[in-house]
Every structure is written in C-alpha cells, then in structure tokens.
TrEMBL record, chain A:
<keyword id="KW-1133">Transmembrane helix</keyword>
<dbReference type="InterPro" id="IPR043428">
    <property type="entry name" value="LivM-like"/>
</dbReference>
<feature type="transmembrane region" description="Helical">
    <location>
        <begin position="78"/>
        <end position="97"/>
    </location>
</feature>
<feature type="transmembrane region" description="Helical">
    <location>
        <begin position="103"/>
        <end position="120"/>
    </location>
</feature>
<protein>
    <submittedName>
        <fullName>Branched-chain amino acid ABC transporter permease</fullName>
    </submittedName>
</protein>
<dbReference type="Pfam" id="PF02653">
    <property type="entry name" value="BPD_transp_2"/>
</dbReference>
<dbReference type="GO" id="GO:0005886">
    <property type="term" value="C:plasma membrane"/>
</dbReference>
<dbReference type="GO" id="GO:0015658">
    <property type="term" value="F:branched-chain amino acid transmembrane transporter activity"/>
</dbReference>
<feature type="transmembrane region" description="Helical">
    <location>
        <begin position="127"/>
        <end position="150"/>
    </location>
</feature>
From TrEMBL, chain B:
<feature type="transmembrane region" description="Helical">
    <location>
        <begin position="190"/>
        <end position="213"/>
    </location>
</feature>
<feature type="transmembrane region" description="Helical">
    <location>
        <begin position="276"/>
        <end position="295"/>
    </location>
</feature>
<dbReference type="InterPro" id="IPR001851">
    <property type="entry name" value="ABC_transp_permease"/>
</dbReference>
<feature type="transmembrane region" description="Helical">
    <location>
        <begin position="63"/>
        <end position="84"/>
    </location>
</feature>
<keyword id="KW-1003">Cell membrane</keyword>
<comment type="similarity">
    <text>Belongs to the binding-protein-dependent transport system permease family. LivHM subfamily.</text>
</comment>
<protein>
    <submittedName>
        <fullName>Branched-chain amino acid ABC transporter permease</fullName>
    </submittedName>
</protein>
<dbReference type="GO" id="GO:0005886">
    <property type="term" value="C:plasma membrane"/>
</dbReference>
<feature type="transmembrane region" description="Helical">
    <location>
        <begin position="219"/>
        <end position="236"/>
    </location>
</feature>
C-alpha cells in the first residue's frame, strides 16, 4: 500500500518542503484575516464556524503525521477528539477551567490509550491495522456512551468555556478563534520539526521499506508507536478546542464516521504534506456546509463525491489541482 | 439462574450465526482480494429493507425472502461492477475512502427511499410462538429457525469451500492470488463471484433478522464493527475462523451484558456493580479482541499478519 504514499524525488525535496511551509504560512495569514472580515460583513457567526474548521485542521494534521509519514491508516482517531472533549467536560465539572490543565489531561489520557492500543495494533499491518484501530475507536465510543454521569448518549452541556491564564473565554468567540489559530500554528511548527528531524526521517524510511530499516538497525515498532502516540496527543488538543467551541460534549465526537471524515480531510489535502490536510479540513468542512445549505440530502452528494474522487483522482485535492496546473511547482 | 444462562446462550448463538453470515463474505473479500470493504454493513441493512418492502408488497414473509435473494444478487453485482472492481489494485487508503463514501451514500439513499422511521417485518405464522425447552423454559421458534438456517448456510459454505471447484479456487486465491491468476483462472470473474456471494449472505442475514429487530438506517453500523472484530479474531480469509470468531464474539457480548453485573456484585456493592458492569459490557468484545491479537497477531486461524 505504500506505492501511492511514496515521497517526492529526493532532489526536489528541499524545495518542496519550503513550498509547503510557504503554503501553510499563506493559509495562516488568511485564517488570521478571517475574523475582521467576518466582523466587517456583520456575520460574526463565521468566527465560531471558523474555530471548528481550525480545530479539525489540527486533528487532520495530526493524523497526517502517522498516515502520511508512517503509512499507518488509523481509523480510530476520533477517539482522541473524544478524550479532549471529555477532558474539558470532566475537569470543568470539578471546577478546573484552566485550558492548559485540560489540554494536559487530554494528552495524558490519549498517550495512555495510544500506547496500549498502538502497541497491539502495530503488531499487525494493512487491512488488520485499519480494522483494529477502528474497533478500538469504537471501544472508546461505547465507553463514553455508557458514562451516564456525563449524559451518556445524550451528551453533556458546558455552562462555561475554559480560561487561559485566568482569562475566561466564555462568550469571547474571537479570543477562542485566535487561541485556536495560535495552537494550530504552534503545532504545525512542531509537526514540521518532527517530520524533518532524524526521527521523522526514520519514520519515512520505515514507511518506504521497513525490512531495510530494520537491517540498518532501527526498530520500526518503537518509532511507529512513538509517532502514533504523538499523533493521538495532538488530536486530543483539537478535541479540547471543539468542546469549547460547541460548549457541548457527546460521544458523537468519537463515532467512526468522524474518524472517516478525518481521513477524508487528510486525503483531500494531500497525504504526507502537513499543510495539505489543513487545507483539506477547510475544504471538506466547507463542502459539508455548502452541500448542507443546498440540499437536505447533502450526504448523498458527499458520499458520491468521495467515491468519484477516489475513482478519478487518486491523489486527492492536490493531485486534482496539479492535474489542472493550478499548483504546479508550488507544493 | 441456569435458565437465564441457557436462554442467553441461545440468544448468543443466534447472534453468532447472523454475524457469521455477514463475516463469511467479508473475510473472503479481505482474504482473496485484499480489499477492505466498509460498505459490507450496508448490505446487511439493504437486505432487511428489501425483505420489508417485498413482504409488504406480497403480504408474505416467504415471498419476500424469495424475492429478496435475486435483488441481493443484483445489488452485489452492481456495486462490484461500478465501484469494487476499480479498487482491487488500489491502496487500502483508497479502498477505505471509496467504501466510506458508499456507506454515507447508501445510508442517505435508504433514508430518502424508505424514510427515517423504522420498519417492521411480520413474523411468518408457522414460526411464531415459542416451544418449551426444558421445564418451564420457553424459546421463540423464530430464533431457533434463524439458528438452524444459519447453520445450514454455514454447512453449505463449508462444503462449497472444501469440496467444489469454485471453493478450491477460493482457497487457492486466498493463499496466493498471483499464482492462481498465472495458472489461467479469470481472477476478475472469481472476484465478482466472491463479492456477490458475500453480498447475498450479508443481505440474507439482514433479512433473517428483520422480523425480530426494527429495520432502521443505523442497523448496519454496529454490526459492521462487530463483524470486523469477528474477522480479525478468526483470521482474515478463514471461513472456519469466521465461524468460531462469530460464535465467540456473540456469546461473550450477550452473556457479558447479562452476567457481568451479576458477577461483579460478588465483589462490589450493587449500585457500583451495575454501573461498572454497564460500562464494561459493551467493551468486552474489544478487550477479547485485544487479548487474542496480543497472543496471535494474525488471528486464531489466520495465515497472514
């Protein structure tokens, strides 16, 4: 399955990487300009929607870290979104509203879950890996469904948002938006450093040829598991934001459809590009919102779009754009 | 207590037989074509909706069942021809995306055609009512019929896989696809047959369960994941593994839900026991899967990891 995920030719790699950072920087500038624009158009509703887009961008980027750079197709990543959302709900019910503590709690739970499920899932590959991550994701989903203290299936409303260094984000949509954007930029920088570090190169090497990497003296399992844990932890941060954005948590955040949508975002933007999945998240959610505005049965068209995209453009949105010449030489 | 145990065990076996019907097709598709198909649960749902429609039109469960079968063949062939055929050579990621798209489409299409309110299928007269098992114990005839029908299909499948030419090709294909193809077998036709067979079995499971469950759009989802667990536990490509895995998963799932809280009451106080029991019960099958995979990464009867 690695053939479609193959890295670009070695000689062009540095230019490509610089191009991707530039593409990401352009995206971040656009994101930063969004709230004033929404205010000018007198449509502050978009700021809250935008926060949701940014949160999913974080999650898609985190998934790309293992899917794109490690060829690990995790179909259970929505579980980590769920851990983040419930970290907010559970801690705030005990009166802890500090955002950084909630993020830490989400990360701790995610790291533990990723360590255990990753260690079992990574003993297998291919179809097995996809199905096992899906099953573990579903296990987490059922756990929170039966967590009746926090509403079970119905979910749990949050009366207030988290606070950042004592600054309460409740009712401040703009502030939440910029906090999310700052997190996205910071985490992009982190992921960018990871994939270009020695660790990232080993991970890419394992993606290309695990047997050869093992012969050279790297234990694939340890590198893959570490990447798997990092990815889960970053995804949980997106969950913390989503709980604040919606001021509501429910197991719906962790349904397997959500995991599928995360994969869609990564593939739409381009696998193994980091910046691509950020654009992919925006594209997928815009498509959902757009189709939703057009038709009550938008899911029919969304599903059809997915099928046709795979059948006719195997390389995702960037493949589509490159084909039409829009992004040639850029990313 | 003993009576409850026997009743729940039978319920577990009935669920297991249904899971096997779905898992059999799935494990063959995985094993032989190395294709992951998330839309397999959709077929189970479509089977239930088809029999609901045909039974309502003809007024008879049996006619409904009879008409459902050719319709299921048609559905399988169409999906194979339009989508699956183009996915065999693709990466697993592409297969996940395309079949995920199919799931979303199919769920919405079913909602558009049949509406969102659940349908029900009348139970055939001959099979309604209960039979006495032992002492005061009664068990619904229909559920026994489901078990018998499922076991019959399992036996048929076993004979087909082990003693017929198509079965020989299936086994050979699961072991080494390219060699089978090189020996002059039309592998595409074999794939189409396998996929359609799997689709019909999944539709049949949906049709059999329709009189005891309400037919709604969510029914394929929970079953799909359970089936994945079955296939993973049993080992991909193994019919025997799918059969044992299905029974194991179903019995653990059914008994765990009922007896988990009862057993926990021995060590915890009643309210805590029911609380913990309710939380652990739905997770039991996944814990079972984790334990089995930890010991045998390729599943109980898997040849490839």
């Amino acid at each position: 399955m690695t053939e479609t995920l193959t890295a670009p030719a070695a000689g062009r790699a540095p230019r490509r990487i610089a191009g991707r950072v530039k593409a990401a920087a352009c995206l971040f500038v656009l994101f930063a300009l969004m709230p004033p624009l929404a205010a000018a158009l007198d449509d502050p509703f978009w700021i809250l929607i935008g926060t949701r887009f940014l949160a999913y961008a974080i999650a898609a980027m985190a998934l790309d870290l293992i899917l794109g750079y490690g060829a690990m197709v995790s179909f259970g990543h929505a579980a980590y979104l769920g851990f983040g959302t419930y970290a907010v709900a559970i801690l705030s019910s005990y009166g802890i509203h500090d955002l950084s503590l909630q993020i830490l709690a989400g990360i701790a739970v995610s790291a533990l879950f990723a360590l255990v499920t990753g260690a079992i899932s990574l003993r297998t590959r291919g179809v097995y890996f996809i199905m096992i991550t899906l099953a573990f994701g579903q296990m987490a989903f059922f756990f929170f469904i039966s967590l009746s203290a926090y509403g079970g299936d119905d979910g749990y409303g949050l009366t207030q948002r988290s606070s950042l260094f004592g600054f309460d984000l409740t009712g401040r949509d703009g502030a939440l938006y910029y906090v999310t954007l700052a997190l996205l930029i910071g985490l992009f920088a982190l992921c960018h450093r990871i994939v270009n570090s020695r660790f990232g190169r080993v991970l890419t090497g394992i993606r290309e040829n695990p047997v050869r990497m093992e012969a050279v003296g790297f234990a694939p399992f340890r590198y893959q598991l570490t990447a798997f844990i990092i990815s889960g932890c970053i995804t949980s941060i997106a969950g913390v934001i989503l709980a604040n954005q919606a001021q509501f948590v429910s197991p719906a955040f962790m349904s397997w459809h959500r995991s599928g949508e995360l994969i869609v975002m990564v593939v739409l933007g381009g696998v193994g590009t980091l910046a691509g999945p950020i654009a992919g998240a925006v594209a997928a959610l815009t498509l959902e919102e757009g189709l939703g505005a057009l038709s009550e049965h938008w899911k029919l068209f969304f599903g059809l779009f997915l099928v046709l995209m795979v059948l006719f453009s195997p390389r995702g949105l960037t493949g589509l754009l490159e084909k039409t010449g829009l992004m040639r030489g850029k990313s | 207590m003993m009576n409850l145990f026997i009743l729940q065990l039978l319920n577990g076996v009935q669920l297991g037989v249904l899971l096997f019907l779905i898992a059999a097709g799935l494990t063959l598709v995985f094993g032989i074509m190395d294709v992951i198909n998330l839309a397999h649960g959709v077929l189970y749902m479509v089977g239930a909706y088809l029999i609901a429609t045909f039974a309502a039109v003809t007024g008879s469960f049996w006619w409904g069942l009879l008409l459902m079968l050719p319709a299921a063949v048609a559905v399988g062939l169409v999906i194979e021809f339009l989508v699956m055929r183009r996915l065999y050579a693709r990466s697993h990621l592409d297969q996940v995306l395309a079949t995920f798209g199919l799931v979303i489409m199919a769920n919405e299409a079913v909602k558009m055609i049949w509406g969102t309110s659940p349908l029900s299928v009348p139970m055939p007269d001959i099979l309604s009512g209960s039979v006495p098992l032992m002492g005061p114990l009664q068990y619904p005839v229909y559920r026994i019929a489901v078990i018998v029908a499922g076991l019959a299909v399992a036996l048929g499948l076993f004979v087909m896989v082990n003693y017929t030419r198509v079965g020989m090709l299936l086994r050979a294909g699961a072991t080494n696809r390219s060699t089978v193809s090189a020996l002059g077998v039309d592998i595409n036709r074999l794939f189409a047959i396998v996929f359609t067979l799997g689709a019909v079995l999944a539709c049949l499971a949906g049709a059999l369960v329709a009189p005891v469950l309400s037919v709604d759009t969510g029914m394929g989802e929970s079953v799909l994941i359970l089936t994945f667990v079955v296939v993973v536990i049993g080992g991909i490509g193994s019919i025997k593994g799918a059969f044992l895995g299905a029974l194991l998963v179903a019995v653990v799932d059914t008994l765990g839900g009922v007896f988990g809280p009862i057993l926990l009451r021995e060590v915890l106080d009643p309210s805590a026991a029911s609380q913990v029991g309710r939380m652990l019960a739905p997770m039991l099958v996944y814990i079972l899967m984790a334990v089995i995979l930890f010991a045998k990464p390729a599943g109980l009867f898997g040849s490839r990891a």
